[in-house]
Structure formats: C-alpha cells, structure tokens
Description:
Layout: H1 9-23, E1 27-34, E2 37-42, E3 47-53, H2 56-68, E4 86-89, E5 92-98, E6 103-104, H3 110-127, H4 141-153, H5 156-161, H6 165-185, H7 188-197, E7 201-202, E8 211-213, E9 219-221, E10 228-229, H8 233-247, H9 251-257, H10 264-275, H11 278-289, H12 294-322
Antiparallel strand pairs: 1-2, 2-3, 3-5, 4-5, 6-8, 7-10, 8-9
Helix pairs in contact: 4-6, 4-11, 8-10, 10-12
Amino acid sequence: MNKPIFGDxxxxxxxxxxxxxxxxxxxxxxxxxKHAVYLVxxxxxxxxxxxxxxxxxxVRQQLDFQYAYSDSDIIKFVHFxxxxxxxxxxxxxxxxxxxxxxxxxYFGEEQERRAAVRAxxxxxxxxxxxxxxxxxxxxxxxxxxxxRLDKFRKTLVVFEAFGKDSxxxxxxxxxxxxxxxxxxxxDWYALEKTAVDQLSWxxxxxxxxxxxxxxxxxxxxxxxxxxxLAPVSYDxxxxxxxxxxxxxxxxxxxxxxxxxxxxxxxxxxxxxxxALPSDLIREWLIFYRTKPTSNQLYDYLIKMEGKWEQRxxxxxxxxIVLT
Length: 323
C-alpha cells in the first residue's frame, strides 16, 4: 500500500468513506490539522478529533490508562458509532476524541503558567498507582539527551556554512559538561526503578499546545502519545525549560512556579537538567528536518544566538546557586 498523503483531498475522501462503512461515522466535513489528525463533523453537527497512530503498543497503553484514570481533566478517546474504540486502516490505528472548544495555554502569561502547573500536579496525583497491562518503559531521559546531542553534532557543518560554528561548538561543550555531571551524580537506575515501583506516570510532552483552556476556564491535558512510567521530575524539567524563555534566568521566579527540591542533590539535579540546552537542540533538529531555505536557516540561527545567550546566563545563575 502506498504511503498515505494525509493532507490530500483524495485520501481524505477515502478515509471518510472508510469511516462511514466501517465505523458508521458519516462525516459531513473533514479538516486536516496536522500529520494523521483531523477535525471531523458529522451530519448532526457534532465535532470530533480523529487521530491516526502508528504504535499499537502506545494505543493499547493509552486506552488502558484512560479507562483507569478517574478525573475528567484529560481528553479521552471515545467509541466510534459502531461501538469500537479504534479502527485499523492504512497501517494506522484510528481513534476518536470529542472536540473541545477552547484555546491552548500561552506560557508568556504568568496566570497561564500557573494554570499549567496546577493541571500537571493534579494529573500526577490522579495518575499515580494506575496499573496497565505491559506498560511501556521508555529509556531514561539521560539517554534521550545523549542521542539528541549526537544528532546535533552531525549538523555542525550547517553552522559552519553560515559562519556560526562557534555557536554550535559552545552548545556542544556546555551540553557535554552538563551531561557529564548528570551521568556522574545521578543514580538513574534508582530514579527509574522507584518510579516504576510506585506506578508514577508522566505525560511526556508538556508543551503549551497540550494544555487546553475551555471557555468555562477548565484546563485539560491532551496528547498522551509519550505517556510513560517515569519520574515525575521529567515532566517538571521539561516544563521548566518551556517556561525559561518567558522568565529569563530568574531562578526565584522559576521556583515560584515549579516546586524545586530543597535537598542539595535533588535541587542540583533539577536545576542542571533544566539548564541543559536539550530543548534548544530539539527545536533546532525539528526545524532542520523541514528542509528550510538558506534565508530561513540564517534567520533561525540569528534567533538561536539570542536564545543561547539567555541560556548561558541561566547556567551561570545555576552555578552560583549551587556553589
């Protein structure tokens, strides 16, 4: 079977026909949102989000998890009109969620940062202790960071082409230093084992677009593709990195949002992990995969220099606090 072109109208027509025949879902409108994700409206005016997923293990885990999750602060998958929870077609598992009116949070606003923190705290509390069949255990966060740095090194030639090789080398040097500290000082095996033993769940992708604020002010968490048994600190590290562009190198402001440990070793782990420029590297790799033009590359690197200056300052502040 040819690889589907999700934004193609012909493919959407075939998908719509499949939904009507197999799922008894008669689509009046279908709008492509992003890769394998559509806004669907039936003939009664009811709207849904239709999502295609490749990883069957993740589908099963999400369905098991949401069945056991008691609160209403996450957007859960619902049954298709034919009673099935997922359908397999075009090498994808297709799932349905009710469409929720609202807007994603903006971390530039302090009130919305605090709303995200409250929602994440509640999720961790409600999720702890949930058992699923054969849960997915993902590699420690350290492995992901190391793998990401390896990919970044391979793009050094791009920085050199624009005379920005010193920027890339500084990022590599600082990342290497921070990773060395985290390798030496953190017992990753114990950290992971404790989380698994305690059935501690993480969302895995706490970007602003995965927090939805309804018209009535309720906050919902979306997109659990990276759901995992893991230390909750992984979510807080990622959220701290998401907040940094809006709070600069202000550690007291960061700690007013995210509960940083008072214990020396744990505080050092959190601050040095947040300071690690893994998020800047991730954003660069995502951008580079889009095959940008030379002008787009140059503009991006100029902006990246500004972000890097801010991160270097934050690292200096972390060093002062931990000295």
